[in-house]
Give the backbone structure.
Amino acid sequence: MSTSAETELKTAPSPPRRRSAMKWLLDAGLRRNMGLILALVLLAVLGTVTAGDRFADSNNVMTIVRLAAVTGVVSIGATFVITIAGIDLSVGAILALSAVWATTLSGQAFADSTSWIFMALTAMGVGAAAGLVNGILIAYGKVVSFITTLAMMAAARGLAEIISDKKTQIITVDGFLETVGGNLFGVPVIVLVFVFVAVGGWVLLNRTTFGRRTFAIGGNPEAARLAGIKVERHTMAIYALAGLCAGIGAFMLMARTTTGSATHGTGLELDVIAAVVIGGTLLTGGRGSIFGTVLGVLIFSTLTNIFTLNNLSLSVQLVAKGAIIVIAVLIQRQLAARQSRT
Amino acid sequence: MSTSAETELKTAPSPPRRRSAMKWLLDAGLRRNMGLILALVLLAVLGTVTAGDRFADSNNVMTIVRLAAVTGVVSIGATFVITIAGIDLSVGAILALSAVWATTLSGQAFADSTSWIFMALTAMGVGAAAGLVNGILIAYGKVVSFITTLAMMAAARGLAEIISDKKTQIITVDGFLETVGGNLFGVPVIVLVFVFVAVGGWVLLNRTTFGRRTFAIGGNPEAARLAGIKVERHTMAIYALAGLCAGIGAFMLMARTTTGSATHGTGLELDVIAAVVIGGTLLTGGRGSIFGTVLGVLIFSTLTNIFTLNNLSLSVQLVAKGAIIVIAVLIQRQLAARQSRT
Amino acid sequence: MSDDEATGAAPSRAHLLEMRGIEKRFPGIIALQDVSFEVSAGEVHCLLGQNGAGKSTLIKVLAGAHRPNEGQILLDGKEVGFSSPDDAIKAGIGTMYQELDLVETLTVAENIFLGHEKSRGGFSSRRAEQLEAARLLAGLGHPEISPDMEVGSLSAAGQQIVSMARALSREVRLIIMDEPSAVLDSEEVRNLFDTVRRLTAGGVAVIYISHRLEEIRVIGDRITVLKDGRAVASNLPVSETPNVELIKLMTGRSITNVFPPVAAVAPDAAEVLSVTDLVVAPGHEPISFSVRAGEVLGLAGLVGSGRSEILGAIYGTTKPVSGAVGIDGRKLRPGSTVSAVNAGMGLCPEERKSQALLLDDTLVANFTLASIGRYATAGFTSGKREYQASMEQVRKLELRPADPAREARTLSGGNQQKVVLGRWLSHGCRVLLLDEPSRGVDVGARSEIYNLIAGLSRAGIAIVVVSSELEEVLGLCHEVLVVSENRIVHRAPAGELSEHQILDLVMEGTTL
Amino acid sequence: VSNAPAEPAPASGAPAAAAAAAAAGSNAAEGKKVTIGFSVPAADHGFMAAMTDLAVETAKEYPDVELKVAEGTNDVSVQISQVETMINDKVDAIVLLPFDGAALTQVAQKAMDAGIPVINVDREFSTAQSSRVTVLGDNYGVGVSAGDFICNELDGKKDAKIGEIPGIDSLPLTQDRSRGFKDALEKCGLEVSNRVPAEFTVESGEKAASNLLQAAPQLDAIWNHDDDQGVGVLAAIKAADRSEFFMVGNGGSANMMREIQSGDSVVKATTVYPAYQAADGVRVARLVAQDKALGDLMDIEIPRQIVLYAAVVTKENVERYLPTAFES
Ligand SMILES: Nc1ncnc2c1ncn2[C@@H]1O[C@H](COP(=O)(O)OP(=O)(O)OP(=O)(O)O)[C@@H](O)[C@H]1O
Ligand SMILES: Nc1ncnc2c1ncn2[C@@H]1O[C@H](COP(=O)(O)OP(=O)(O)OP(=O)(O)O)[C@@H](O)[C@H]1O
Ligand SMILES: [Mg+2]
Ligand SMILES: [Mg+2]
């Protein structure tokens, strides 16, 4: 099994300078995520069998990863939220709000005359701020996360529509399009951003005190509080982090579409939660896996890609998708059970 | 407070023959749902102030309730699911599948030559069957409900598209349109169905062994198992029940739109969960309130109505909706806190 | 109740129940190995063993909650296969589990009749249930527990009573009690024994699990001892087996002195914890006391007397109405656990599962929860240092199994308690608040924990111990505060008090 | 591409095919084999479904065309990846009905740069260079047609109450339609008094109309942007038992046309927003890929932009249009 997993890893792009870090990351994740890796390998086999070289082609792999990038980055943030047994339905709307805010005429004019970086910063700032509002309401207002973020989902989307007047705002700042939309070392910048956020998220969750406290709060908030952890402040920070990730997703999507629009990220919240949950993070909190989330996102985007390559009827795709989700989870469960038995 | 609540009740339509039953129902729910009732009253005041007679008009009230009916019925089923700490994302898709299945040409021809009731039965049967599939996977397959129903959401929608060939199937069975789409005692039949399902759901949850065990499983599944309850079978039944409610919603929507379509119920799942959660049912299980759910559904449909009466733009509606959701919950929390203090 | 029927059904001599060659494996561990066990009608059969010996596992197999990998169960000489708890219940086996098996969001009456609801055509008959529940509770000496109270609002002791009422609500031939006395005070235990005697008199068999040997003496008939998943001694008659031998069987060594000698507090010891005019909740009297470095202060009293609430107000889990708590003269922010922990205070709460442990996490994570910052440089944790520090705790606390990478969930109760203690040991405290530190802890571990506490006291840490076992309060503490109905009714050095005196004080308090 | 409605055409399906074949003459003859990529938004409403179906059926009529249909999606990110996949795949042409024209412009440009002609259908890119041909319904035009029709019918009535039920409000095409409608009404001194957006589905149409009818106790006319959601709108009108106004539809579904034909319906007219745009897009794509020209034109190249005519269907001319209408 481990050999097939390694085969898969070779196809997956990893920046050469991160080789050893990646290896480290994978070792930790490999055992727990065997089922997901297997599912991904099976998908890869399916893709190669049905679409041959067109699937295994490096361009195509890059297409898959590029597609996964935006959802992926937002999912990293959501992994933290779900690890503390929360839920964030507002990420798609926050992404839209961030994208729209960063691409207003005046914003673009300012960015044009100074640096494109301000567009990215605006998107991230707006995202983090919206996330912070969620966090304050949830942590200090004690409104359950489902309701708070549902409300934010409506409000942020509405605000995005008002700001953009429901027009798609076209980005004319060349610096932005060239840098964020371009390549670095032959790899699309948005893919690099995804890798960066994923690695950063992994380190944050698994190698820092912040991550430790996140797990503790998710596992037993009362125990965390009695151990002197500032549960409220931490919770607030995690929703702000999720907002920040949505903001990062926003400028990635801006680069991908060359636009900011109030319709960006529609339905993203469910895709994100699905990827995180497929990845093994428990909705009941206490367990979260960034590596699993990345695999979950890749599984979904590979699925979309295989469907596109194979010219399946649209409705059949939906049915197949449903079946594949359940099968993937059943495989994962079986393997997990077998592992803990040995 | 109780007086203003009673004022509101007079505006709400209740079939005269159920007066005492309603009273009984309300007594039980009044205390716990004071915040929601207050929110609804405040909305009613807002509606009357901004739209005057057009709001307070009995026709308008009926419109609000009629629009609440489909979501309401589906939400009753979802209340059971959420009470056992599950989630059902597939209700919208199951509704579409049921509606499409019940309105195929051959189905309609059969109903035309026998009785319209077979269309209703088909919708309910298909819904219950799809729910049963969910239930089996969740209870016996041990796949978490979020994933199972996410998969069902894709699969049922795809199947509905395949069956209907993505065409809107217009209903020509007059018996169906006249009966289900018509009035009885001056009240739309679909409103009566809603009332019937709500009362039935309330009795089932609060006055039967089935309901008691539902609470137990939601509160502590291990304890329920140790007490000799067949947790798996019960869980399965609850998802089937949620599917059944989606099927009932399907034939109500069929009557309302005079069609069956694979697009029916799009996005319904979130509306439903929002109504249930606003209504005070905990996502963590163990506590559920049918009365609260009904109030939640009414709050949302009243909100839409007031917005429309005032000709508000959709974007402003979204922002206002977000704000109102949070405020409603904060009121509810405040009141609950005050009650428990006294 | 159906005591008469039960007597009729079970011939008094023959074994009512027999378990043969039971084996139960969990992933990575064999919890039970070739265990045989028997119970006769009308007897109280005690099951003894260290934490993690497999007592709860054995009775869960019997109750149908676990399926054994090997072995058979015979009821009235006929083999039965319990595939679910339902089967066992139907066969007349009632169980009070160690981890309270109640649904907190349901009412008392609903819990009592869960699984065998009184109903007509599927509709529940709530009045009938409430009447019957009230009758059962009154029979147990607790008419004050109202059938329509939510169980979550009851104290652990109250919940234990409900659990008892529930076991009695069915027609039972065998009742299993897994450490029922752990959360009860002496008064309640006496009450419990009355009930047990009534049951056995009616021919019902009782399996009784407890870590308190003195209880076994009072109520037990025969004893079976488990050690590391094996039955090391079966059917010992209680009257002929001295404690020393039992302890030897359980632990494999002899423990003669449970309480270590109490070292005197240095006369010049500084006052570390000071509590001044603390009003815990509206309507309570202000409380003042102080604890010096190296001093162990005990809070004695009945269950529900308000000792946990006092600890909570000191630690900041609840915000006191008024008053101040200081450590080394510095005042703490009221209602802030963060402020308390930062000032060097630690709390081992009474509900270790819900309040202290990360059940799904490793022991390492549990140990370092409060002090994670110490193993980190610039926020980045060092797994190696954490592991080493945890390993040290594991050794110091003699945890079984000695594996810091294990999940806390898979540990036995006593070992879990040690983990919580270990958290504050590795954190290093000036003040340690211990709420029922020996609840559910076996004899061996208990003496280890007492030694630990004594060691900490010698190291100059100020300690406050809440305990419902008077023996423990007297044997462990320098000073004792007697609490009754949220008031401190008496303060005296432990040496000047006896168990009787305390009980009298407590009773006086309640009647006042 | 033909003015199909004017031609006598066979029953349903893709009647334009026969017409085109007749008009284009030699263009129908089998040419070199071409692979055409096809990406559209999710078929989450009848019109979009009809659009997709007609395109797929059209492709089947040509033995030299292989149509690669990507999963319909309203997620621009996914749609971009689909086009990227098609570029990797080196298809001969791409027919692209973007969820959001502006957002798909860059990737369309990428395809064009890679030498793959892009046929932009229905929702326009932000730069014209990003597509080889643009096939559009006339969104502004249908709004004007509907507005003009209502002005005419109301015949100078002042203070008339006009309701409007648009589709998904955040789409540029909806905004174009509403703009055209507003401009046309302005000419005869009227304005929209109530506007409740739906989402192109029957269910949302019913809901929006129910609320709209409640908000406006008296109406003179309603313009509904989409005939598919129109079925729901009609259901709501029937349920409310209202008939003091007339309704104009848009899209041109067979249902609505039958309503118009019946004469006793509130539906008096519908503007044609052809569902065969994408089918025409496929045809054009084939011609472009095979280096052919439009048969009836002098031009040896395919024109850059083809805007389909926004006809108004009324009781008078409904027989002519009914055969080409799509079953929603
Ligand atoms: N669900 C489980 N999964 C894995 N291991 C378990 C599980 N339940 C119990 N064990 C293990 O089985 C052994 C026996 O545990 P058990 O709970 O029966 O002990 P016990 O004698 O009741 O101890 P205590 O006196 O502390 O309650 C322990 O080593 C424990 O870690
Ligand atoms: N058995 C009970 N019945 C009713 N109320 C109780 C009971 N036990 C505790 N309470 C409530 O809890 C309050 C204090 O409980 P607290 O837990 O602080 O007491 P405690 O002395 O620590 O007892 P325990 O040993 O049960 O923890 C009491 O004032 C009482 O209202
Ligand atoms: Mg035990
Ligand atoms: Mg206590």
